[in-house]
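Tip: read the tokens left to right.
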């Protein structure tokens, strides 16, 4: 069944990553030729040329590679679809400011169309959540009432798009919980409004309604969702089938730097509440630099074999920058992931599932391993 879903989503992904940028290139060339009135327009020739165009060819190849790598992360597909569309449209937008509104309009439309098509492909693969989707690796995103999002991934649960952490020193804006550390899942209801603070000090607004409670890894989550029972079934089934132990590094390892800073903030009230999102810009800047310089280094390698050893300077220069940027991006990713999955010290005990987490809470507990009713 999952194979059929991916089969239905594949044409949409192909159009968003390949069809939109090449189609934009052909349309842009047509508009330019029409203004020059220099003879008949060769659609097939322009289509073939678009694959060799620097602003289209290598971003398109990069997007295809990213889709293969992140075949399960449906929330990333719309962003990946922008990789080939945005560079092509950026040049067209600049050209359109000088040469007419038609160029600017097509340039602005291309990324939107690519994003929507990739989003639809993700929805086809992940929704509705059926018996074949629950035990699979495909990512399922669930919006929370009042803000925030739960992403049920292959090996863990991830909370992102959260409100800014209350404490300005909090190093992360997301928290995660691996399946192998989940102890208790409860679907319940809150009858009165309440606030629930997560381990990174972000606060969720619990409006009256259904709530999913998850305990494990020293954390306790209360998540306001529309269908807590169905989400509980998804989490329990996937955790039972896909949980894989992930040993933590020794606490003396320097990768714990951000996590230890976060542990020190537990039960602390800041003098002034933070209102800004956590900035992870350095990591994404490193990724962009790597994406820009890696093709340049590879092109320099190609020119070494075709035009001489003079291009070895480009290989060394761009290659060194690409390696440093990739190393920074990967290193920070490892550190942030460790912090997200361990916002509470590994030495801490799990909260007691028998206690009442907030006033007005009522629930029926479901402990992992007791899934015969699902």
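Filled-in amino acids:
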């Amino acid at each position: 069944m999952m194979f059929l879903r991916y089969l239905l989503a594949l044409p949409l992904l192909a159009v968003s990553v390949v069809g939109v940028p090449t189609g934009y290139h052909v349309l842009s060339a047509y508009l330019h030729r029409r203004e020059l009135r220099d003879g008949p327009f060769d659609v097939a020739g322009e289509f073939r040329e678009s694959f060799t165009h620097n602003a289209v060819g290598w971003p398109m190849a990069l997007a295809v590679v990213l889709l293969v790598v992140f075949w399960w992360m449906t929330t990333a597909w719309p962003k990946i679809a922008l990789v080939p569309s945005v560079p092509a449209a950026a040049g067209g937008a600049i050209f359109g400011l000088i040469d007419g509104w038609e160029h600017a309009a097509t340039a602005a439309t291309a990324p939107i169309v690519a994003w929507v098509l990739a989003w639809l492909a993700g929805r086809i693969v992940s929704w509705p959540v059926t018996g074949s989707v629950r035990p699979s690796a495909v990512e399922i995103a669930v919006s929370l009432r009042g803000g925030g999002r739960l992403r049920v991934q292959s090996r863990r649960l991830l909370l992102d798009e959260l409100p800014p952490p209350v404490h300005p020193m909090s190093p992360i804006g997301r928290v995660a919980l691996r399946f192998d550390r989940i102890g208790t899942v409860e679907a319940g209801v809150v009858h009165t409004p309440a606030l629930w603070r997560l381990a990174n000090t972000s606060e969720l607004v619990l409006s009256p309604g259904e709530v999913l409670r998850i305990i494990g890894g020293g954390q306790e989550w209360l998540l306001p969702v529309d269908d807590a029972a169905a989400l509980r079934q998804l989490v329990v089934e996937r955790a039972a089938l896909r949980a894989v132990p992930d040993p933590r590094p020794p606490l003396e390892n320097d990768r714990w730097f951000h996590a230890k800073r976060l542990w020190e903030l537990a039960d602390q009230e800041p003098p002034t509440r933070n209102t800004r999102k956590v900035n992870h810009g350095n990591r994404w800047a490193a990724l962009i630099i790597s994406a820009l310089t890696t093709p340049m280094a590879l092109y320099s390698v190609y020119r070494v074999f075709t035009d001489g050893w003079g291009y070895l300077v480009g290989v060394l220069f761009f290659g060194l920058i690409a390696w440093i940027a990739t190393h920074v991006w990967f290193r920070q990713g490892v550190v942030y992931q460790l912090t997200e999955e361990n916002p509470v010290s590994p030495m801490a005990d799990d909260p007691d599932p028998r206690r009442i987490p907030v006033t007005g809470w009522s629930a029926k507990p479901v402990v992992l391993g007791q899934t015969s009713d699902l």
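DSSP finds nine helices and ten strands in the chain. The first strand starts at residue 140 and ends at 143.
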